[in-house]
Amino acid sequence: MATLTDKKRTKSRSSGRPAAELIFGNLWQFDPAPETADPKLKARYDLFIGGKFVAPASGKYFVSINPANESKLAEIAHAGVADVDAAYAAAQKAFDTVWGKMPGKERAKYIYRIARLLQDRAREFAVAETMDGGKPIKESRDFDVPMAAAHFFYHAGWADKLDYVAPGRKVVPHGVVGQVIPWNFPLLMLAWKIAPALAMGNCVVVKPAETTSITALKLGEILQDAGLPDGVVNIVTGFGDTGAAVMTHPTAAKVAFTGSTEVGKIIMRSLAGTEKKMTMELGGKAANIIFDDAPIDQAVEGIVNGIFFNQGHVCCAGSRLLVQESIADEVLAKLKTRIKVLRVGDPMDKNTDLGAINSKEQLATIGRLVASGVKEGATMFQPECKLPAKGWYFRPTVFSGVSMSHRIAREEIFGPVLSVLTFRTLDEAVEKANNTAYGLSAGVWTDKGSRILKMSTLLKAGVVWANTYNKFDPTSPFGGYKESGFGREGGRQGLLDYCKLV
Ligand code: ADP
């Protein structure tokens, strides 16, 4: 237990009295709380084409690794051009013969069944997601899997109401759509992509990211159990070459991509001049803005959630903290105190706050950008937490004294690294927040409703959260401005990106 002598005092703005800080030191330790559900992994995963698991034509497989301990999880098929052709042929056939002709209310039943089956196997999927990607089990259990199911439920609800989605207009599916998704929310991004496409009556060829293919292939099992007609969804695994084949295939009437801005640009260049419809959800460098009248303790929780959720592997992460100068010292002090008690380590432990970095390559990228922050003169803070000896981990990191020209203020780090900048006026906050190539999300913390409304119109970001951060809901459209991409996912707007209006 903490004693009185363990209490440190920092000045509190709200009460004017010093705030007590409990220092637990090593007095309170958490016992290990490992999640033990069976993820029911196979030793080898084939491609899911035409409703069946099939070996890749090339016979090539690659290994998926658990980033928490570097152990081998499973072998994953590497799809080549012939496999992608087969997937598109299956999708086109399913569209022409079954899915494109099926009334929406019948499609809804399949999508609803997928959601229910996913709920039934929720814990198993959460464990698989955590082992494959490194995110804390409490996040995959409480966020990724339930939110993925929620997207299927939501879109099942739309499938028989498409006459009302665009009043006065008729909606027609594109046909076959190609989709490529990233590794940060593997199952959730799959749900974001598949659910609206199916609800609208499209068939799909989708490629998961190379480091996190397992839950997509497990979803293939659910699609079989749901009796989804063969070929409606086809899952091809592999690297960038497979992704490029999916994006550029002549059968794809529309493509949807979530990933880095760099790869998004390559895809857009390769599709320029074609008839393909595109939606792109790319990188971000969001400003999380704290005004001096904000509820500071809540804001600190929001800052922590904004940058350390999923180890900062979040395109909408609040990676730039803009704090009003008059409260900057207090916010920074409270933030450091909070970060010191974050638990970093085994993602399968139910008490872990920050799990493993998804890959060795990503760990190196984070390391490089953090080194640039130190070199360019920003002040780095990291708590002294002990990291596991094996696996890929990075301490939660806060840089203060950052200026707009620093690389850590401009480039997407995609890791648990926060850059703190200050501002004096609302105009300066807006100027700094918008001074970026990106425009995916932003956060505003203030007591004033009118200021929230003003900020949300001035900030050039697709999503602006007020007095909260990282809030998601299938009914709410998500997407970017500028180099963060275009098109929306979720809500009516997301659905409309999967149809032609006639
Ligand atoms: P991140 O690593 O930030 O998620 P990437 O853009 O590298 O972003 O990866 C996102 C997805 O894009 C992954 O599934 C990856 O395999 C795929 N990919 C990589 N290069 C290409 C490409 N040239 N064309 C299509 N997809 C690609």
Low-confidence stretches: 1-12
CATH homologous superfamily classification of the largest domain: Aldehyde Dehydrogenase, Chain A, domain 1
Query: Major β-sheet, in short?
Result: 7 strands, mixed
Based on secondary structure, the structural category is alpha/beta
Count of structural domains: 3
Distance between the termini: 68 Å
Strand content: 15-25%
Reported CATH architecture of the largest domain: 3-Layer(aba) Sandwich
Q: Output mean pLDDT.
A: 95
Shape: globular
In what order do the strands lie side by side in the largest sheet? 16-17-18-15-14-19-20
Q: Write down how many β-strands occur, each being a DSSP E stretch of 2 or more residues.
A: 22
Give the bound compounds: adenosine-5'-diphosphate
Percent of residues in helices comes to 25-40%
Number of helices: 15
- Radius of gyration of CA atoms, rounded to a whole number: 23 Å
- CATH classification, class level of the largest domain: Alpha Beta
CATH level-3 fold name of the largest domain: Aldehyde Dehydrogenase, Chain A, domain 1
